[in-house]
Structure formats: structure tokens, C-alpha cells
Design goal:
Helices cover 47% and strands 3% of the residues. The chain has 14 helices and four strands. The strands form two sheets. It has a two-stranded antiparallel sheet. The chain has a two-stranded antiparallel sheet with strand order 3-4.
């Protein structure tokens, strides 16, 4: 009897410990962290991001992807921004070579350093830029960004290759990748909805058109009409320059259409189609076809993603230049 009680107590302690460990990712973050030290910080970033997105709507997806790729490698610490003289930083990894907007992050940092020197981290600028880029079309912020991150000092190309989920991944691989960041299957489905804006390069999905199983065949889960269209855009499997909208209906509008076209067999990447290979994930896709459901879920999931491995308090630093450690 005594041993049974001790076992239950031990299990309870493990559960509490596990929950507290997961909660530590958000320690030190809060809404409007700079309200006293740099009250105009978020306004400064928004003004700059909105100016550039107004001139180039494709930047919204670029900033969102930058944030995702930053958080999945060493946590949300702006390691994606660091330059390397010998091209061994995260931004030099193939998945990051098509990122854009680094010079706009620099512009925001310069403005913030002028207004509030040594105060606002590059990591927070990346998080705010993702929100502001997407929010431009609504003329209002569509989710709150917790701030208070500090910047990391290390950026390694191999970690980017290891940790950034591949568009060729199957469902179980994606779930494992997200679980390693304390994100669950629902977060995976919801955050995949970011593909409602942006483009994909042909070489990242053309195997589905020309050589899906190594026998010169196409992916049977891909809508045949859509596949025919994609072949007119991607002439060969080795095409690395041509891009195609990730949402065939509204690629510059942040909406729930990604989930509607996904159910029609028009998910561009294998990782998109993989969401329909699991019953629970497929049911979530059904619910997220409703715009209100999607936007509410996205606010929660991107907040959790923004808590991944953050550096706060006396750890890390506030970089003076986002491209180099102090």
C-alpha cells in the first residue's frame, strides 16, 4: 500500500515537473515589455514594416517565415540574423537562402537604437515584424506579441539543416519536429496555415509531379487538375528558380483558404498533404476552414511558437547590430 502511494506521488511529481519545464520557455516574456524603457518600440517597428509591405506584399510571408525559421533553431533568439565570414551561419543553410527582408530588420534596429539605445532586442524585432507584416492587410495588429527576448550569440548552419522541418516530411516526422519544440499536432496544423501566403520553389515539390516514388510517377493525393497546372510552371524536377503560390487561390491574402484548397488535394508541399494522412489532423483542418476558427487558433499557436527556447533576463544580449554579436 505504501509503495503504491509513493508511486502515485512520484508520477504526480513527474507530471508537475514536466508542465513546469514546458512553462519555462515563456519566463520573462510579457505583452508590451518595453512600455517603460522604450514605449514607442512597437510603433517604430510597425511603421517601418508596413511601409515596406505596402510596396511589396510578398514581404509579409517572408517575415513570417523568418520568424518560424529563427524559432526552430536555438529558439527565438535572432540567430537567423547573424552573418558569418565563411558562410557557416544559419542564414547560409539552403532552407534559408530564399529568406528576405534582413535589410528591413536592420532599418528597424537602426531606428530603435536612435530612439532607445541598447534596449530592444533583434529577436523581438523579428517577432514583431512577423506580426506586423501579416497585419498590414487588416490595418490593425491581429495578435499580441510577447516581448522581452534577448539575442543569442551563436548561429550554426548545421543546426538549421537539422532543425528546420523539410517540405518533404511525412506526418510523423513533422509531429516529432514540433514536439521537440514543445509544440503539439494542433500547433503543427495551425501554423501550416501560414502557407496561405507566400510562394514555394519548384524543386521543393516537383518530385510530386515527376518522380514521387522513384518510378517517374506523380503523387496520387495531388489534385490532377492542379498537378497539370503545376507542370506548366515547373518544367523539370531540377528547376530551383521558378516559384508557385503556396495557396493557389489567394496567395497574398492571409485567410483560411489554405485549408479549403488542402482538402481539395491542392496542398503544394508533401508536408501540406501529410496533414490529411492523420485523422485527428484532418479533423482540425476541417475546423480551420472557418476564418474565425483559424485566426483564433493562429494567435494561440504563434504565441506558443514565440516562446520556444527564448533567452531572457541576464542571459544573452541586446545586439547593437543584428548581424553580429556584440
Amino acid at each position: 500500500m505504501k509503495s503504491s502511494f509513493l508511486l502515485i506521488l512520484s508520477l504526480a511529481f513527474v507530471i508537475v515537473l514536466d508542465r513546469s519545464t514546458k512553462g519555462q520557455a515563456a519566463a520573462g516574456l510579457e505583452n508590451h515589455f518595453y512600455k517603460k524603457t522604450c514605449p514607442q518600440a512597437e510603433e517604430i517597428v510597425q511603421k517601418i514594416i508596413w511601409k515596406h509591405v505596402a510596396a511589396n506584399s510578398e514581404l509579409a510571408a517572408k517575415f513570417l517565415r523568418m520568424f518560424f525559421h529563427d524559432c526552430f533553431v536555438r529558439g527565438c533568439d535572432a540567430s537567423i540574423l547573424l552573418d558569418s565570414a565563411n558562410q557557416t551561419a544559419e542564414k547560409d543553410a539552403p532552407p534559408n537562402l530564399t529568406l528576405a527582408g534582413f535589410e528591413i530588420i536592420d532599418e528597424a534596429k537602426t531606428a530603435l537604437e536612435k530612439a532607445c539605445p541598447n534596449t530592444v532586442s533583434c529577436a523581438d524585432i523579428v517577432a514583431l515584424a512577423a506580426r506586423d507584416g501579416v497585419s498590414f492587410q487588416f490595418n490593425a495588429s491581429i495578435w499580441e506579441v510577447e516581448t522581452g527576448r534577448r539575442d543569442g550569440r551563436v548561429s550554426q548552419i548545421q543546426e538549421a539543416l537539422n532543425d528546420i522541418p523539410s517540405p518533404l516530411s511525412d506526418f510523423s516526422t513533422l509531429v516529432q519536429s514540433f514536439a521537440s519544440k514543445n509544440l503539439d499536432a494542433k500547433d503543427l496544423v495551425v501554423l501550416s496555415g501560414a502557407h496561405t501566403i507566400g510562394v514555394g520553389h519548384c524543386n521543393l515539390f516537383s518530385n510530386r509531379l515527376y518522380n514521387f516514388t522513384g518510378k517517374g510517377d506523380s503523387d496520387p493525393s495531388l489534385n490532377s487538375t492542379y498537378a497539370s497546372f503545376l507542370r506548366t510552371q515547373c518544367k523539370s524536377q531540377s528547376d530551383t528558380t521558378t516559384t508557385v503560390p503556396t495557396d493557389p487561390e489567394s496567395s497574398t491574402k492571409f485567410d483560411s483558404n489554405y485549408f479549403i484548397t488542402l482538402k481539395q488535394g491542392k496542398g503544394l508541399f508533401q508536408s501540406d498533404a501529410a496533414l490529411l494522412t492523420n485523422d485527428r489532423a484532418s479533423n482540425i483542418v476541417d475546423k480551420l476552414q472557418d476564418l474565425k476558427n483559424f485566426t483564433n487558433a493562429f494567435k494561440n499557436s504563434i504565441k506558443r511558437m514565440g516562446q520556444v527556447g527564448v533567452v531572457t533576463g541576464s542571459d544573452g544580449e541586446i545586439r547593437k547590430n543584428c548581424r553580429a554579436a556584440n
